[in-house]
Amino acid sequence: MPVVPFLSFNDDAARNADFLLEKEDEAVLERLREPIMLKDKWVLWEQVVQNDGKNTTFTDALKKVVSFSQLHEFWRIWNGLPQPSDLLDQKQIMRDPGVAIDAIMIFKEGIKPEWEDPMNSQGGHFQIQLKPNVGAWQIDEYWNNIVMGMIGGTIEPSDMITGIRLVDKLSGPKGANAIRIELWWKRDSEGNQAALKKSMEKCMSTKLDGSAGMACKAETKQHTNIKH
């Protein structure tokens, strides 16, 4: 039985997998060239590493990078971002020389990636701590699956989702030797939190051939009960 490759865009992983169509259909390729609008407009943010001793706040560390509302725009941005597996190679995410990035975040336009934002303050997030022994490309697949499920609206109910964070917790004074993924959501009066969590866990563990991969349970964090 052939081994199903992981959905990773790490160059080393790509060398071991073929993501190309077996037969290029010109009609399909032509449709792919047309603009594909996403359901929501999204913003890529970065959280800059804060220097000890400076009187700075969490908000000071947030940097808005770029917004996108089309699938083509997303892929142009995504191709320039590191995969989580790059962090396991002792590579920090760097924006400018000497400026390290703690977290990459994608949130719906108009929502800041902080608990104090009105859309986040009464909600929470699903937190997944991934140790290096999970496997570099498996971690990539979890991350890619959740991001694509989020912007594509296949993690449901999608209207609950406010954004996602990839946090480097491998080193530093608060290091936990882990990469952390957080899917943030707003308060829902209809009690759909459990359904959203189940949908996310199913999405993140789905393999490229549609089969169910190794499941990874997420911890639920309520924003009203925690502080920065």
Describe this structure in words.
The longest helix has 16 residues, at 136-151. The chain has helices at 11-14, 26-32, 71-78, 84-88, 136-151, 193-204; strands at 37-48, 62-70, 93-96, 99-108, 124-130, 161-169, 178-185, 219-222. It has a single domain (37-222), classed as RNA Cap, Translation Initiation Factor Eif4e (2-Layer Sandwich). By secondary structure, the chain is α+β, with helices and mostly antiparallel strands. Belongs to the eukaryotic initiation factor 4E family. One of its GO terms (molecular function) is RNA 7-methylguanosine cap binding. InterPro entries: TIF_eIF4e-like, TIF_eIF_4E. One of its GO terms (biological process) is regulation of translation.
CATH class: Alpha Beta
| Number of domains as seen in the coordinates | 1
Termini separation comes to: 47 Å
**Helix count from the secondary structure assignment:** 6
If you average the pLDDT, what whole number results? 86
The CATH superfamily label reads RNA Cap, Translation Initiation Factor Eif4e
Number of strands: 8
Query: Main beta sheet: strand number and arrangement?
Result: 8 strands, antiparallel
**DSSP helix fraction:** 10-25%
- The H/E string reads HHEEHHEEEHEEHE
CATH architecture: 2-Layer Sandwich
Ranges with pLDDT <50 over ≥5 residues? Answer: none
Broad shape: globular
Keywords: Initiation factor, Protein biosynthesis, RNA-binding, Translation regulation
GO molecular function: RNA 7-methylguanosine cap binding; translation initiation factor activity
GO cellular component, one term: eukaryotic translation initiation factor 4F complex
Family: Belongs to the eukaryotic initiation factor 4E family.
